[in-house]
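Lecture notes, part 5. Sequence design as translation. It can be helpful to think of inverse folding as translation between two languages: the language of shapes and the language of residues. The source text, in structure tokens, appears below.
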């Protein structure tokens, strides 16, 4: 493809907006290649100057040596032809090159010193401060381990005045903090660097560089919360940048120092492949040593059997490498590189530092990195009542075997599992198994099955229930046998033997309808309902419950049984979406449980009632009811369900701050129980709560942990919601490329015509991210794609909005003909918008306003004037007075541009008379009015206006 010189300049401008990395490097190299072919000296120089920057921050610093040397020689060949800015950038690039030269052991140290000498000569010749030069000389002394030299240059560096060539207000103190950590005190380092984090740091390397520098001093001075925050924030900002590989090593060491070797393993796995394209041998050495230390720590903690996936590269296939083997390989690599550096430097400093990294001991036993980590660490299971402390005094137990078994079964039915267990243990101590009658022995086996099933020991429960069934058959107790067969069938339905279990439950149900009393018949119907629910047959399950409820006149005296029926009915009604009926049935269950002494199982009825309230939009009431569940239940799973529900209800009620605590408890509880699937859904809710609180970093980490699990589960809708939340959080964290990646994946996931509007929305949001990063040409493409999608989906209002934004983006991309065409397309489509809907009126008015801005850029002032006037009228018609005032100022500006100042004056005075005093539009109107008055030869009025509003003469 052929490029004109203007095309290449446009490409160079576009490259500035591309993120650092391979993409930007490829684009700049393309410009360099074509600039050389075109023979434009100015373009060749500008492209290589930009290439030096791209190589430095894109992870290929060795290439910067070539472009920097070329530019320096070209500058020296004809300095007069170069600008002041060219000289400034070249002086700045000296720092890039000197810093990089030290990181390649094959580069002689003398060559680096020669470059520093040249830098100093040029700085002195230009009358610049030597502050930046002394900083580089300190860096060389620090690199080789020359303590005396480092101290000398540090003093000179501190004494020299800062100027435009000095490192930024973040980088400079950050480097000084390194000196103080090594040669001073941690407290001095913290005092110097930490305050800078409270200010605004605009440098590309900040605040992540300072945060990383402070990790060790924070830990050694006991500032553990600050250390954890510095790691989380600093690593997040570095993890996408290949150029930062050597500094990511510090975050690996943090994991080793703080007992977070599992997180360290994640970091090793994420970046291991980067070693094959490492920015420098120094980065390879540092990362390898730190990774080896983390992997050794994993092995020491009993996880040496883990493997790390090492991606393929030239001459090496991909493989899952055992932790210990990889640790050894990386440690050897780090030592070998350190030896090369020390041979070049003539010292043993780098080898000493690597040895210290490999042998580093933890500074803290364990430092939690999130609320969930801290809660999970403290979480211990609630101990069940011990045999020597039963829920009922053994002195009050019945004296006969049958009475004891009746008591245990009653406790079990009430979900007093610990109490039931205590009674059964008492039974076993008092009545040896070989002394039991056949019927009592069968009942005892039945009880063993119940207790085993409640603890998810299914194989043990199955054996016990078969033993009980055989015992009942032996004594001819067919009713008890069928009850046990029903329980056994329900157990099988919860495994991969559903059909077998269902047949057993149905047969037992049929027999009990013939043989059993009311209690047995009701129990059989409830078990049948339960297994039908397991088989995703809720309508049939409800029918079984209704048959049980039909026994109500007979079971009215058994409050517990009546409660069980009402509770199960509420459950199925909720599943079927009959929410008001479900709420009513749950209330009935609670009343019956109250009459039965309010046993622990009543917590499930409270849980159902809370879910019904949430489904009905009664979120505050639901949150309170979920809290009741947590307070009343003794079942860990029910408690966690209550915590999760309470968090979700508070979130839905618009109270994310109060939602965080129960959701943290939920995630920690499910994670501690090994239920990562449920924990993932709760993590998403926690991320949403954190986002609502403005805790973007916490939200990102929770969502990042949830997403891969949701994807593994095949929960696509939940995973997509998580991606969308992440995209928003990444924008809040100023991580635009990560946000774009999530939106792009959503575009891919939302396939099919039914998702056309959703895909278009993702394109539009991506367009806004690009637009606000000044990547206007790319933004215009996204807005245009969104507009076409909205058009095909029949969403005209959304289409007009997207085309309006496309026109603005093209205007700022300096593609004015295309911008005007996009504007005209938007205006044509806007003709189809309704005239009586405020949203459509607002969009037409905004289209006129932005259209005027586009036409101003195209120098079509008369056409812009008409649109500005129409914009104000449109906004006023729907009461959008703030927007109307902005349109008035634009209208007045256009009148002024069209040499009609007398007409502009009343428009601006109306704005000043209408806008509240603290609105910025007043300042804009006053500034423009002063210019209008000057044009009307009313300078005194203009001066008075400027004084009134504190405006500069300009």
């Amino acid at each position: 493809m052929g490029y004109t010189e203007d095309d290449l300049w446009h490409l160079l401008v576009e490259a500035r907006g591309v993120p650092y990395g391979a993409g930007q490097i490829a684009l700049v190299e393309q410009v360099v290649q074509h600039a050389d072919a075109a023979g434009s000296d100015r373009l060749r120089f500008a492209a290589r100057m930009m290439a030096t920057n791209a190589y430095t921050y894109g992870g290929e610093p060795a290439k910067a040596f070539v472009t920097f040397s070329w530019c320096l020689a070209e500058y020296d060949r004809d300095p007069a032809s170069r600008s002041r800015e060219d000289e400034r950038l070249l002086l700045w690039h000296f720092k890039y090159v000197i810093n990089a030269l030290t990181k390649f052991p094959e580069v002689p140290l003398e060559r680096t010193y020669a470059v520093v000498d040249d830098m100093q000569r040029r700085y002195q010749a230009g009358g610049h401060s030597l502050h930046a030069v002394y900083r580089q000389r300190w860096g060389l002394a620090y690199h080789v381990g020359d303590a005396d030299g480092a101290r000398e240059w540090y003093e000179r560096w501190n004494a020299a005045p800062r100027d435009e060539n000095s490192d930024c207000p973040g980088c400079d103190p950050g480097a000084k903090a390194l000196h103080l950590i090594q040669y001073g005190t941690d407290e001095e380092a913290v005092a110097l660097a930490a305050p800078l984090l409270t200010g605004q740091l605009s440098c590309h390397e900040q605040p992540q560089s300072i945060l990383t520098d402070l990790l060790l001093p924070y830990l050694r001075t006991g500032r553990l919360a600050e250390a954890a925050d510095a790691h989380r924030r600093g690593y997040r900002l570095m993890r996408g940048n290949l150029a930062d590989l050597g500094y990511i090593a510090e975050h690996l060491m943090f994991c080793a120092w703080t007992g977070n070797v599992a997180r360290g393993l994640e970091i090793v796995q994420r970046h291991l492949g980067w070693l094959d394209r490492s920015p420098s041998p120094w980065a390879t050495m540092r990362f390898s040593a730190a990774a080896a230390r983390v992997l050794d720590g994993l092995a020491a903690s009993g996880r040496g059997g883990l493997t790390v996936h090492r991606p393929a590269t030239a001459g090496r296939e991909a493989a899952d490498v055992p932790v210990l083997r990889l640790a050894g390989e990386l440690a050897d690599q780090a030592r070998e590189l350190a030896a090369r550096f020390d041979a070049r430097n003539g010292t043993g400093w780098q080898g000493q530092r690597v040895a210290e990294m490999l042998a580093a001991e933890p500074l803290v036993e364990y430092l939690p990195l999130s609320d969930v980590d801290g809660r999970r660490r403290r979480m211990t299971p609630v101990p069940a009542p011990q045999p020597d402390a039963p829920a009922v005094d053994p002195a009050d137990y019945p004296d006969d075997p049958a009475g004891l078994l009746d008591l245990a079964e009653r406790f079990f039915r009430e979900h007093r599992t610990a109490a039931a267990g205590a009674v059964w243990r008492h039974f076993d101590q008092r009545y040896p198994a070989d002394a039991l009658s056949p019927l009592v022995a069968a009942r005892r086996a039945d009880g063993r099955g119940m207790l085993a099933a409640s603890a998810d020991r299914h194989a043990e429960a199955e054996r016990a229930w078969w033993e009980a069934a055989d015992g009942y058959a032996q004594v001819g107790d067919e009713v008890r046998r069928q009850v046990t067969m029903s329980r056994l069938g329900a157990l099988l339905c919860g495994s991969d033997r559903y059909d077998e279990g269902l047949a057993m439950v149905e047969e037992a149900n049929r027999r009990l309808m013939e043989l059993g009393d009311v209690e047995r018949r009701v129990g059989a119907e409830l078990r049948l309902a339960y297994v039908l629910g397991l088989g995703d047959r809720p309508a049939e399950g409800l029918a079984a419950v209704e048959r049980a409820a039909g026994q109500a006149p007979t079971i009215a005296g058994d409050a517990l049984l009546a409660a069980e029926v009402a509770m199960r009915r509420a459950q199925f009604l909720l599943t079927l979406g009959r929410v008001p009926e479900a709420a009513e049935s749950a209330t009935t269950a609670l009343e019956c449980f109250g009459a039965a002494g309010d046993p622990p199982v009543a917590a499930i009825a409270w849980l159902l009632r809370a879910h019904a309230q949430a489904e009905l939009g009664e979120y505050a009431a639901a949150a309170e009811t979920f809290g009741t569940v947590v307070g009343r239940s003794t079942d860990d799973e029910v408690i966690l369900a209550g915590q999760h529900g309470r968090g979700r209800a508070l979130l839905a009620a618009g109270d994310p701050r109060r939602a965080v605590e129960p959701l943290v408890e939920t995630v920690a509880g499910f994670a501690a129980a090994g239920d990562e699937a449920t924990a993932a859904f709760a993590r998403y809710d926690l991320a949403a709560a954190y986002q609502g609180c403005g805790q973007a970093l916490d939200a990102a980490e929770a969502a990042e942990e949830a997403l891969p699990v949701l994807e593994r589960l095949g929960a696509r809708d939940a995973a997509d919601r998580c991606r969308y939340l992440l995209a928003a959080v990444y924008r809040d964290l100023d991580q635009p490329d990560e946000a774009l990646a999530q939106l792009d994946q959503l575009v891919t996931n939302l396939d099919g015509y039914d998702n056309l509007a959703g895909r278009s929305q993702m394109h539009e949001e991506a367009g806004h991210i690009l637009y606000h990063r000044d990547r206007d040409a790319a933004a215009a493409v996204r807005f245009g794609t969104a507009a076409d999608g909205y058009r095909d989906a029949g969403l005209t209002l959304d289409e007009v909005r997207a085309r309006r934004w496309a026109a603005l983006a093209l205007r700022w991309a300096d593609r004015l003909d295309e911008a005007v065409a996009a504007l005209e397309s938007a205006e044509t489509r806007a003709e189809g918008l309704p005239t009586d809907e405020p949203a459509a009126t607002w969009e037409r008015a905004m289209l006129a306003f932005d259209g005027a801005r586009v036409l101003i850029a195209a120098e079509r002032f008369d056409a812009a004037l008409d649109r500005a006037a129409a914009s104000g009228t449109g906004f006023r018609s729907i009461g959008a007075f703030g927007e109307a005032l902005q349109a008035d100022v634009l209208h007045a500006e256009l009148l002024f541009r069209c040499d009609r100042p007398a007409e502009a004056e009343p428009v601006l005075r109306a704005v000043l008379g209408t806008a509240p005093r603290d609105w910025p539009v007043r300042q804009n109107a006053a500034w423009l009015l002063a210019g209008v008055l000057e044009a009307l030869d009313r300078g005194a009025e203009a001066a008075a206006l400027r004084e009134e509003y504190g405006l500069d003469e300009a």
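The translated text above is only one of many valid answers, since several sequences can fold into similar shapes. Confidence is low (pLDDT under 50) at residues 380-390.
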